[in-house]
Write a structure and sequence with these properties.
Mean pLDDT: 94
Strand order of the largest sheet: 1-3-4-5-2
Structural class: alpha+beta
CATH topology of one domain: Thiol Ester Dehydrase, Chain A
Distance between the termini: 41 Å
Length: about 160
């Protein structure tokens, strides 16, 4: 089978796979333990800090970080946020709908390279959207923890979430 035949075969046999939850799948108080987890490496931290122009030397210079009272270079807090947020997407917002923002973001303690982060979320608000037929607004409280189970970050976030109808 040549490349064109392979593409034709794949297109003809593709099956739509709906991913993500819809508005009706969320109930007030419902909890999600996001199943993956992610180990943050020193390379992740250096690359993220460099690409986002976060040149605080504490994130890339262990000697400077120790002089500031850290045990070494901590992971850039914005990277911690992005990792924990990303862990929640499959369960919470992968079904599509605009992101509406984050509230009450708190960094609870430093994260260091080599730590594995996990996330859990709880539905704290769910209502149909007044001005967007076919959508609801869902808000979650998400907590990111290290491998010892200690909370390192928490925040609330909201999305417009498609309804099943």
């Amino acid at each position: 089978m040549n490349a064109d035949e392979t593409v034709d075969f794949l297109e003809q046999n593709a099956v739509e796979w709906v991913r993500g939850n819809r508005f009706e799948d969320f109930a007030l108080g419902q909890k999600f333990t996001h199943h993956w987890g992610r180990t943050v490496t020193e390379s992740d931290n250096t690359l993220f800090s460099t690409l986002t122009l976060a040149y605080n030397p504490a994130y890339t210079n262990a000697s400077h970080a120790r002089a500031q009272g850290f045990q070494g270079s901590p992971v850039n807090p914005l990277l911690v946020f992005n990792v924990v947020f990303g862990l929640s997407v499959e369960d919470l917002s992968e079904g599509g709908g605009p992101f509406l923002g984050v509230d009450d973001l708190q960094y609870l303690q430093p994260v260091y390279p080599g730590e594995t982060l996990y996330a859990e979320s709880e539905v704290i608000q769910a209502r149909l959207a007044d001005k967007r037929p076919g959508y609801g607004i869902v808000q979650w409280h998400t907590v990111g923890r290290n491998e010892a189970g200690v909370p390192v970050i928490e925040f609330k976030r909201a999305n417009l979430v498609r309804t099943k109808g």
